[in-house]
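Mods, move this if it's the wrong board.
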Amino acid sequence: MTGGADERKTGRTTGPDGTVLLAHDIRSAVSDVIGGVRLMDRDSLPAQARTQLDRVQSSAELLARLVEDLLDGAPRDTAGPVGNLNLRRFIDDELRRWHGAAQGTGVIVNTDLGGGLPDIVQLPLLPLRRIIANLMSNALRHSTGDRITLGTELLDDGTLNLCVQDNGAGLPDDMVWPPEQGDPPEGERHGMGLQIASAHARDMGARILSERSQMGGARVMLSIPKSVWSRIEEPGPDDMLPDLRGFRILVADDSGTNRMLVQVMLTRLGAECEFARDGIEALNWLARERFDLALIDVEMPMLGGLDVMQSERLRQARGVAPPTSMVAMTAYVRGDNKDAILEAGADGILSKPLGTIEMFGAAIWQFLKAAPDSSGWAPETAPALSAATLSELMRAAGPAQEADLLDRLREDLRIVERALTDALDRDDLPAVAAQTHVLLSLSSAIGALPTQETARRLNRLARDGQIDAVRATGKVCLTRLAQLRAELVHAN
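Not the wrong board. Structure tokens:
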């Protein structure tokens, strides 16, 4: 009883249930950071700020995966079969991160991709990122040169090398402890980055090698045999299986058996996949990363599949999430249950048991072909007006005030449009800043994301005194404001 009273006094939760709640809160907080970064207007930022934004996003995504492992008590990539990894996408993501990390140091970070590289490799993502992180950190800290290259090469025997090389003096001797000698004794823990990288490499069946670089510095390689990285079963010409290379799929299912079954089939088909074990975890994945398709189990703990789909569809309607196709997985596909699933926002239903890989692959391929293309999605491409947000605002006002509120919104936007047009015609930057401040408030209240983002950019440009950019962006802002006003004409 005392423990419970103490918990109520302090507001803390302990024990298994409290730990689970804390874990979900941490995951949600990290996902909020990544989701917020994703919604930032990247194009409106200066070049240096864009570089740092890329760095923050990449590092935050790595942090999210590390948090998952820390909270779970064991790395996820060590359990079950290893999934697919898009090699070029991985290298591009790493370049974004380390280009930002090197900014201000005088060091240029670039990539060198060899010929004949596989599109897809079967390697655990998190250990791979930790290896590259340690090798790149060492190069940035200890190289005296001005260039670091993250490269890949495929040798004649199929060995895949991921290389970090610099044109400096290389690592000093006292920073290296030969990996084959195990952990260094206390007091002699030099080169711990290489020790960590070597440990992860050994766990995946690879090894760390080093040599003098042709650039004049050190060349440290993660050398991965073909038997480790190559796909176990390449579909043959007569397999009649779709090639899903390049597609990313989220699988949310509380059954470990089902997750492993789906992973084996998706890996065979060439897709990359991530996994969630409950509804909250699924929403966190959707908030922080993009997927071509989400497979959502209807019955899950913490938050059910129907709630997940409804919540994500609401975020999409508000314009704060890219369009993503969602497919429900359930053993109950009849009558009212089917109607409820489709009403929740499902684009289709996969019946359990999932059947053969041929049947599963054919179904997934059909869903992917019908899925919306979200590659070019940005907040400014959202609908001119979020019907969901406006509906919530109307409900909050109450039936008696709905008409008055709409009339007031229309009039306020008309006044802002006239005043902003006048300010732009006169190149009156303080007035432009003042009117866009009002427009920001109005557009955010009704979920008008395109107008909101353009008004934010125009406000910043006006305050910075960038007259030419203000003129160009002002035209875009007025166009989006006109579109918003047109949408409100038909709102009831």
